[in-house]
Design brief:
The protein is α/β, with parallel strands linked by helices and 524 residues long. It is built from 21 helices and seven strands.
């Protein structure tokens, strides 16, 4: 009975941690949903498929900075979600939200493959409130669900290679599904997951040729899930794969020297791990110089100790580990991490902190190695030291989550808002203004502040298009239409109010931005 009580208490604690994680990932999900140009473009495509206006796409979104298109899994998941829950932008984001939530129990199982229950529980609690994990679970974007599919692929792969597992076929199928979807979500996974799989099963096949049959199962399942992309390549004569290699070549041409790549890539590696585990972001683009800012410098130095020290400890624990399954799991993670690290060095100056989504589990293993080191040095007191460190990291993350939420809450108030990020409530407000003031026409035009319009135009075009109103950007060539909408800052409204060439007929403010209905007075 005592054992049953202990088990129940433990799972209740894990459930409570998961509930907290769910709350932070879903709080004001609709209104605060990030809804930039990419999301507007994707929503338009998905809605057209759901409404029967377009066929299911063979390919997915373009990889950043190239003409290469990923597989269509991201769109297929959004389409399925829109069909089940509703054809609206927030419902299309559910696959990324759900995968972000499922990462909490999955990471716990991931950690339990090596660490004890108490250590795994402390680590997953930090993850549940991770500012980094929460930010990327709260909107629709193809890389956002890569943490789930990466961890599932590695977890399933280890189940296949475990000596005592009797369900190797089932886990090989699951691994194939995870890889088949994962490689369609981000270009890096198109490299890292297949390379890791080939290296692992190539080594195992040398010792036991029978392991190749599980590799073939994984290969067949993953290729089957990529059938639309393969068919698309056949139709276009390999045009998309040529764009992939062309993109790789262009990125290589822009690289700096080997030394600079190593320094910048290592710096980014440290910053990514630091952000995931503590919520402290030094620079989204990894641009940082020691001494440029005191807080950033101290954070970077602590991050360096954390990452380098944890990596050294991890290597030591792998060498000393006697349990075959635990050792093989750490080795599997080492292969994947090493492949990622080496390729990231090659792409050092193309990196940003978001690239570390696929390694979201890594800092928690590094921290777990530190906790294990404390246990060896301080025995019984080690748990309390680990608890204090965990509480510091939990409160650090909650501080940055609160700061993030506060910025979102300010969007519709006073000077709130962000030139680089449009949220759904903001786009809906501007869209409703356009619809209310366009009742007697089927087509309207919009102009605006270039930087803000770049982010907001496609989302607004999509939303007004749902009411069958066509919105187009004004041509830069004169003459201007008699009436048009203008999207910009409050300063733009002040500027137009003093311009004799235009008249402000109506306007609506949202935070520090405004939408204006302008009348062109030129020639009148």
């Amino acid at each position: 009975m005592e054992k049953i009580k202990n088990i129940s208490r433990f799972w209740l604690i894990l459930l409570a941690i998961t509930v907290v994680g769910i709350f932070l990932r879903t709080y004001n999900f609709h209104d605060w949903l990030r809804f930039n140009a990419d999301q507007g473009r994707d929503s338009e495509l998905v809605s057209n498929v759901v409404d029967g206006k377009a066929s299911w796409p063979l390919l997915g979104p373009k990889a950043g900075g190239t003409e290469f298109k990923l597989g269509g899994a991201f769109y297929y998941l959004e389409i399925a979600s829109a069909k089940i829950f509703g054809n609206t932008p927030d419902k299309m984001a559910y696959p990324d939200l759900f995968s972000g939530i499922l990462c909490i129990p999955l990471l716990f199982l991931f950690l339990r493959k090596y660490f004890d229950k108490k250590t795994s529980l402390l680590l997953v609690t930090i993850f549940a409130v991770s500012n980094y994990a929460i930010r990327y679970a709260r909107f629709a974007w193809n890389p956002n669900s890569t943490p789930f599919w990466t961890m599932l692929a590695l977890f399933a792969m280890h189940e296949v290679i475990c000596e005592k597992n009797n369900r190797k076929f089932l886990w090989a199928v699951i691994c194939g599904i995870a890889i088949g979807i994962g490689v369609q979500l981000h270009t890096t996974l198109l490299l890292f997951l297949p390379i890791t799989t080939i290296l692992v099963f190539g080594y195992l096949a040398i010792k036991n040729i029978k392991m190749l049959k599980y590799f073939l199962i994984i290969l067949v399942v993953s290729l089957f899930l990529n059938t639309p992309q393969i068919y698309g390549e056949y139709q276009t004569g390999g045009k998309n794969i040529k764009a992939f290699f062309g993109g790789v070549s262009s990125k290589q041409a822009a690289e700096s020297t080997l030394v600079n790549n190593v320094l910048h890539g290592s710096s980014c590696w440290i910053q990514g791990n630091l952000d995931i585990v503590s919520g402290y972001e030094i620079s989204d683009k990894c641009s940082f110089k020691i001494g440029s800012h005191a807080n950033d410098t101290w954070a970077f130095l602590l991050g360096t100790i954390f990452v380098v020290g944890g990596s050294i400890l991890g290597v030591g624990y792998i060498r000393r580990e006697k349990n075959t399954d635990k050792k093989s799991f750490l080795l599997l993670l080492s292969v994947f991490t090493s492949v990622t690290f080496l390729v990231f060095l090659k792409l050092a100056f193309e990196l940003s902190v978001r690239f570390y989504l696929i390694l979201i589990f890594l800092p928690f293993f590094l921290l777990g190695f530190w906790f294990q080191f404390l246990r060896e040095k301080f025995k019984d007191k080690a748990f309390y030291l680990a608890l204090v460190i965990s509480l510091i990291l939990i409160f650090s993350n909650l501080f940055f989550v609160q700061k993030y939420f506060s910025e979102l809450a300010k969007y519709g108030k006073g000077e709130g808002g962000n030139m680089d990020v449009t949220i759904l409530k903001e786009a809906e407000t501007f869209s409703q203004f356009i619809l209310k003031n366009s009742s007697d026409t089927e087509k309207v035009e919009i102009d605006g502040d270039g930087k803000f319009l770049f982010k907001a135009y496609k989302p607004i075009r999509y939303l007004v298009g749902r009411s069958h109103l066509e919105l187009t950007q004004i041509s830069k060539k004169p003459p201007l239409p008699a009436q048009y909408f203008y999207l910009g800052t409050l300063k733009d409204k002040e500027k137009f109010s003093q311009d004799a060439n235009v008249k402000i007929l109506k306007f609506e403010d949202y935070g520090s931005f405004t939408i204006l209905l302008l009348q062109n007075n030129k020639g009148l």
